[in-house]
Amino acid sequence: MAAQEDARIAAAISSVCEMETEPCCKEQKDGVLDPTELEEAEGISELAETHSVNELPCGPAKEDVELCGEDPAETKSQAVENKSHDKKSSPNCRQEGEKGECKIEKKLKKTNSWKMVRFQDPSIEEDVVERDSSAEILFPEYAVEEWTSTPFEELFMAEDWENITEDRLLRKKVLESGDIHVPHSTWGQEVTVKMQGVVEDRTVVEKDCKLVFVIGEGDVIQALEECVMSMQKGEIALLLADSQYAYGLLGREPDIPAWAPLLYQLQLLDIRDKPDPLTLPIADRIRIGNQKRERGNVHFQREEYGLAARAYCVALEVLTTRSKDGNDVGMKEEEEEVREYRVKCLNNLAAAQLKLEQFDEALHTSRDVLTLQPDNVKALFRAGKLLSDKGVYNEAMEVLKHALKLEPTTKAIHAELSKLVKRQSGGKDMQQWRVKPAKGISWKFILGALVVALGSLVTSMVLTARH
Fold this sequence. Notes:
This protein is an alpha+beta fold and 467 residues long. It has helices at 2-17, 145-148, 152-157, 222-228, 282-301, 305-318, 332-355, 359-372, 377-390, 393-406, 411-433, 443-466, and strands at 109-110, 119-120, 162-163, 170-176, 189-198, 204-214, 236-241, 262-273.
């Protein structure tokens, strides 16, 4: 029986391979697909639990070509190295040391507060700015003792500080009042702040003269989002944040340890409504969408999968060529570029949903990818695996066969097809050999009758004893 089953599996796979006259990509060493791996890992460090065996396939999925044969993680200490959003990297790569980085025509500018993932238009400045860890403060006129030397424990207990949250773990002290006539910022608005952050030994770990973010979209740590909603425009304040409102258990390599509280000096410079993406030029939509996608990648790398999924959804809202009246406003080249970035976002969203065990949502997202790009191998593999797990064997077989036709050397697809064939045959065997429960009197009825009988026996014994 085992030999016959193995023969059926081999026949099912070989029938698909025979349809492929030429391999569509170079043979891989491992050929392993990880359904929870990001579509494109540019700009993030090594994902947790993701190792070299999780290689992306070469072939028709265009977004994967950049990663074929190279490590998606460039460094461990710098997690955000971004590629240009409007120009693809040159195919001619030169080796720099041991990293093998590719030279690209343009780079997004990385600000000093690199973890905030704020980017500027690459036309402003070509060079990437290194993180500024200088001791020079942005508010020299407010070099108060709390900022320069007071232990954080004392600041958490100080009576002249205002609690932003009820748990007293997020506190602020106003150094200069703002404009009382301007309403406070609210969820979904875009703000600009000037800020500098230090750890307890007063080492500068974040500095930005013009940090722009949308409240509630996860562009910055929760402490900054909560604080700006309590500030008036123009206000300057000290902000003390416990680690759970900052970088928490993981910290931020190399300068913020795990569970480290942070102290900020910040000024709220501007408050405005978030621009409607449908009113922006297509180039700006691509730029903003890629910023949000990179933020999602950072969250994914930190295993904050819920925040990653939210960032990818925000990116998808921006990455469109539709106008407010429902018409396409992009040129053909722009439409193709937007479609390519949407595919990347959707694949990354599906990876995050799998980590969150949102399997129905991940299947829906994978199908969205296939609507845009029917030959996307990663989406085909995810969809086939999810359909197989749901017991939709016929559709799963068709999807996985399509993936195998495109990538005949990928071992993961062969393995999933083998598993699917076993499931199909095993399901029939189970139906034939499953032991049926015995029909008849239920155990509850028997137990009840036994209790009644015992009760009668006891009663009889008592009556006999009395007589």
